[in-house]
Design brief:
Layout lengths: L1 H14 L8 E4 L2 H14 L7 E5 L4 H11 L4 E5 L9 H7 L4 E5 L13 H10 L3 E5 L18 E5 L10 E5 L14 H4 L7 H39 L3 E3 L10 E6 L7 H10 L19 H5 L4 H5 L2 E4 L6 H19 L1
Parallel strand pairs: 2-3, 2-4, 4-5, 5-6
Antiparallel strand pairs: 1-7, 6-7, 8-9, 9-10
Bound molecules: pyridoxal-5'-phosphate.
Length: 341
């Protein structure tokens, strides 16, 4: 029964991205899927293929895996991103060579919401004989992704971004591709990830994926409406507000803002001030050892250290209300007014 449940979950989750069940590997989450894909595919790359191409706006899971591989003989090349964090096919082509084994570029950016055009990027990768991997942790479930249609060779996604359980993710690897496992052990997951599978979490992931398939469109419409309500309210209430999301291609649930007078503002004061009012936001980068580091994504987009450090990232959920957004704008205005003296 457990085996049947696990395989049903694999089949249904695979279908959501137009993948066959054998192309889905269950992992512990987005980070493990990313590590497995980049390490596993790079290690099996042919002779002379010792380069990995990525961008400086990627999630830490991609950047740190690449940094690890750099210590083990790979050269990491970075394609540029524009002022919104987007990579164009031309920018990618500039850094590709015949030695590139793998391109790792995210679908949607978790800090600034910007969405990349995967079909055009994978085409460039393939033209140079490289594989194309994408981190779709943020975009999965927000809008349909067909791995075959978009030319994706490997893709990481997870359950907790679609209201599923934490601790489970999936990795799509195109049928027939050779991959070295990251977690060595038993022959589970067709020899691609050792260890006893978590049937319960896989079934939880399946339930979330099913609900998402049913409700995604409604959630998308509602969130997009809330996002435009919120951006309008911010423009009206906060002088000098600057939006960091791509104006056309961005996820509906993330709003990232900077301020024209960033030099006058105290980064910790904004985040902590909102926190004291019960509003949970981030400045993009993870807060380590109590000090706020400027976001590496905004820095990659060409923002100064101070602008990056004073930026604020808001994320909307399916239960967010207009009243909560009104309260957020009012609170932010109060904090900034106090800071601006
Ligand atoms: N990639 C992106 C774009 C993310 O937003 C996240 C998590 O927030 C991850 C990777 C890591 O995923 P996980 O937390 O499931 O390991």
């Amino acid at each position: 029964e457990a085996r049947v449940a696990l395989e049903n979950a694999r089949t249904e989750i695979g279908k959501t991205i137009n993948a066959a069940p054998a192309e889905i590997i269950f992992t512990s989450g987005g980070t493990e899927s990313i590590n497995t894909a980049i390490n596993g595919l790079a290690e099996k790359a042919g002779k002379g293929k010792n380069q990995i191409v990525t961008t400086k706006a990627e999630h830490q899971a991609v950047l740190e895996t690449c940094a690890y591989l750099e210590k083990h003989g790979f050269e990491i090349r970075y394609a540029s991103v524009d002022e919104f964090g987007k990579t164009s096919p031309e920018a990618l082509a500039e850094v590709m060579t015949e030695q590139t084994a793998l391109v790792a570029i995210m679908h949607a950016n978790n800090e600034v919401a910007t969405v990349n055009d995967l079909a055009s990027l994978s085409e460039v990768a393939h033209k140079h004989g490289a594989l194309f991997f994408t981190d779709a942790v943020q975009s999965y479930g927000k809008f349909p992704i067909g791995v075959k249609e978009l030319g994706i060779d490997a893709m990481a996604f997870c359950a907790h971004k679609i209201y599923g359980p934490k601790g489970i993710g999936a990795l799509y690897v195109k049928g027939g591709l050779l991959m070295e496992p990251l977690v060595h052990g038993g022959s589970q997951e067709r020899n691609r990830r050792g260890g006893t599978e978590s049937t319960g979490l896989a079934v939880g992931f399946q339930a979330a994926a099913r609900a998402m398939q049913k409700n995604a469109k409604d959630i998308l419409i509602r969130t997009a409406r809330l996002k435009s309500y919120f951006t309008r309210a911010l423009i009206d209430a906060i002088p000098g507000v600057i939006f960091n999301m791509h104006p056309a291609d961005s996820l509906p649930h993330i709003i990232n803002i900077s301020f024209a007078d960033a030099e006058k503002l105290d980064p910790e004061g904004i985040i902590l001030g909102l926190d004291l009012k019960g509003i949970a936001v981030s400045n993009g980068a993870a807060c380590t050892s109590g000090s706020l580091k400027p976001s590496h994504v905004l820095m990659a987009m060409g923002r100064s250290e101070h602008v990056a450090a004073t930026s604020v990232r808001f994320s909307l959920g399916m239960n967010t209300t207009e009243e909560e957004l009104d309260y957020t704008v009012k609170s932010l205005k109060e904090i900034l007014t106090r800071m601006r003296g």
